[in-house]
Amino acid sequence: MKKDPIPLEIRFFRAVDAGDVNLVEELLQKGVPINQKDPLGNSALIRATDHEKRDLVLFLLSRGANINHRNLVGETALYRAVFRGNIDLVKLLVEKGAETKIKNAEGLSPMALADERGEEGIQIYLESIKK
């Protein structure tokens, strides 16, 4: 049997970007770490969030993905959900334990990003959960 010339990590991130839960699960079983990082420091969870793949986000969280992992510029999955303006993913990540006060390398928190991008619904939600 011929070995696949594409490294598992590359196949993994392609599957993540496509939202292919079955292939992601298969590649995890073959040994790709759940918190594998791409060259920009993005985890699968950050990329799944950035591509708005809700089912995959849920799957990765159920398998123990680090919800507060930060990429090379300090962004978390929550930060990317705010950037995309996806309030459903914002709520999901917060409900699953995402830290709302982590700032990126430029010093922007998810709340500050929501303000900067005019995401009023997300701002209202994040304000409502402040303790």
TrEMBL record:
SMART domains: ANK. The keyword Transcription does not apply. InterPro entries: Ankyrin_rpt, Ankyrin_rpt-contain_sf. ANK repeats lie at residues 40-72, 73-105. Keywords: ANK repeat, Repeat. This is Uncharacterized protein.
